[in-house]
Structure formats: C-alpha cells, structure tokens
Amino acid sequence: MNKLTKIVVTLGPSSDSEEMIEKLILLGVNIFRYNFKHNTLEWHSERIERVKKIADRLGVVVGTLIDLQGPSLRINMPQDQLIIEKGEILAFGASAFENGKKGLSITHPDIINHLKPGQKLLADDGAFTFYFQKEKDGVQLRSDTTGVLKNHKSLNIPGADYPFPVLIDRDFQGLELAARKDVDFIALSFVRNARDIRIVHKEAEKYKVKGKYIAKIETQSGLDHIDEIISVADGIMVARGDLGVEIPVEEVPYFQKMMIKKCITAGKPVITATQMLQSMIDNPTPTRAEVSDMANAVYDETDCVMLSAESASGKYPLQAVETMRRTVSYNELLRTENLTRSFDHSVKDIPSMICDTAYGLYLQHVHSNQKIAGFLVFTQTGKTAQLLSRYRAKTPIYAFTPNKKVRDMMTINFGVVPFSREVQPDAEVSRQSVREVVDFLLSKNLLQKGAKLIVLHGDYWAVTGGTSTVQLVEA
Q1: What is the pLDDT of residue 462?
Q2: 176 & 44 share domain
C-alpha cells in the first residue's frame, strides 16, 4: 500500500543530479522543495525543469514547492567569520564596517532603530547570544557566547514584532519564477498574521501565480495569530528551526501538535519540518530520538514530513529519505485511527456532507471487520479529496481530475494518490467511467480483484463543487 504521509525533500548540491533525482522519486518523494535562501534564480529554474522532466519520464506525480526567503534576518559582516569571546563588546550596524572596528550588522539594519537596551539577539540558530546596548559612541552588542560566528548566519530577535517587509526583492523574482514554471506551492517565511498572506496574494496576482500558499510559522506572532493565518492560507508549515529559537525549545512539541490539530479541523494541509534527521547530514544512520520524532509526527497525523539540509547538502540524502519512508510506513500501520472524528459544517456545504456520508460508510465496514481498499474521488478542484483527507482514514484516496495542475497540488494531502484523466468538458461521470478508472487502478496493481471502493463523484467531471453521490463498488 502507498504510504499515506507525504515526504517533502529539499533539493540541493547533494541531490540535484539526474541520477539522484530519479532515485529520490522512486524512493517515494512526493514534493521537491527549492529553498530561495540559497542558490541562484537560474539554478532553481533549471532544477525545477529537471525534476519535472524526470518525473514525467517515470510516470510519477510530484509537486513543486518554492520557499521564499522573506524577511529573515542574516548576519552581515565585512569578513567571512568572526572569533568572539564571552563578554566581548562588538560594534553593531554600519559602524561594524569602519576601519579598526570589530563587529557585525544585519540584512535589515533599519530594524536596529527599534531595538531596546537589554534586548536579546540569537545568531546561528541560537548558538550565539548577544545583548543590545546603546552607548554614547553608538549601538553595540555584548556577547554571551565564545565561538566562531560565520557570515550570513541566521539572526533572531525573540518576541520581536518590528515592521519587517513581507517580501524582499528576491521574493518578487521567486513569484515571477513560480508563475513561469507553474509552481504548485509557495512557502512564505516568517508569517505573522493574515495580513501578511493577503499582501503576498495581492503581489502574486500581478504575476498570475496559480500555486497554493503555505504559511511558515516560526515566530511568536505567528502563533498568536494562528487561527486567522490558517483561515486565509492554503496550508501551514511547522517550521521548528526558527520557531525553536523564537520561543523556548521545550514549547515546540506542544505547538506542533496544536497546529496540526487546527489544520486537520480546518481541512488545510500541514507540513512538519526541520531537523527531523539532522544527524544524517553527516552520518548514514539516524539517532533513535530522530526516528521517534518522525514517528510522533505520524501519530500527530501530519500531512507531510520534510527534509532540509539532510537532502540538500548532507552526505546521505538517499539513506535519509529511505529512513523517513520506512519510519512513516511502519508507524502508519500502528497508528490508532480516530473513529469518532467529526467536523462542523454548513448544511449548504454539500461536498462536506458527502464526505461525512462516505466516511460513515467506511466506518460501518471498519466496525464489521470488512476491508475498504480505498476511496475513489472524481474532482475538478481537488476540494473533495482534501476534505476527505482530514478524516485520516487508514486507506488511500485515489483522486482523479481532468486538471493536471489540480493533480499536482493534491500531492500535499494526506492519503491522496492523485491522477489526471483527459475528458471532454461536458463528460458525465457514468458507470462506465467509474469502471474504467477502477480497471486502471487494477492495471497499476493498486487494487486487487474483488476489493471494495467507496466512490464519490458528481454528475459531470468538470463541474466545480458538484460532488453529490456516494456509492460502493467492487473492483
């Protein structure tokens, strides 16, 4: 059986060859992520095209996700690295570039004007702690850490809600590329509230971007406004790296579970990301704690788990993906299914009511120990498949659509196995068309003869929001 939890892999120099991409796809990668904090625009454009070409040749559906840089703060120094001693006073801002001065600045130096004396700043994912101070001869940082700080490392200001720009110049280039390459998902960094999402929507409309927007939650402000963010975003990424610097690290597991639950209730996909297999950047096997972390994400019922540096720049990208696939697949079988799950919806929301009916039919078979081999969904927009996905049934959702773009955007949804099928715009969903799709699944060895499927469809293939029928068929 196909794994139900999806795998997102970040492409980078360790994994971007044609041979590696093919192996990654065959291992079960569902979405390839392109991190705009690294590499040139041309590099990303070429790799997106390369992955699509290989996936088409293999006949495998994969999604494309570009991760915009957003208003992330980075260290900006006149040298490649700085040796720092605990208690040392460093010049901060423009003065760091004056002759004879030892210090550093940041990528958005205007933010310095909003800092208050005593403010804590954390560099390199929390490895370095500094405290801001104002003196007669200018602003400074007092180091609370001894070590070697490298240029361009991350900088976080815990609790800050300063007027950062939502998009930077490079992000506009990313939106243009997203439109040109028909990218499926656009991840937005450091989303603080619903307004940030609306600003990006407005800018993206200028480029005619057709992808879905994934809000990365990595600040306290994002947590404070999580409900409004979920309501306007197409999905959420639990970005545990920066989040674990912005808030106390012991709080991250709670907020991970909270965000996943809220996304399931809202019917929005959620990606659990960062440091899932961090040790495999340098080692061929994971720690037991990392395996437990991945398994817990499965038990949390996340839609996707994600690899970052492990696959982009690590020494063992294939082993990391294989470890993730095995861990996800094994623990999905052991996950206790929530058989009392229900969702509130309007009586006018016909697709949601139909999904309720379909899941009720599924439960009847589960309670009587009769196996359902899967759901079969005919969908124009992907909404019915996404709504059905939130029940987290332990069986695949085979989703067929006449729209290839919709097919690719369903790669993010838990349990959904997407296909596209060319049909006439006015084609009916008849008994014959259901039979043809079932025979197709049999030919792909996704079903066995005699298996039972719960089918959801409308009267026509190409009618949006037309799902109106639930039936039980036998393969």
Answers
A1: 66
A2: yes
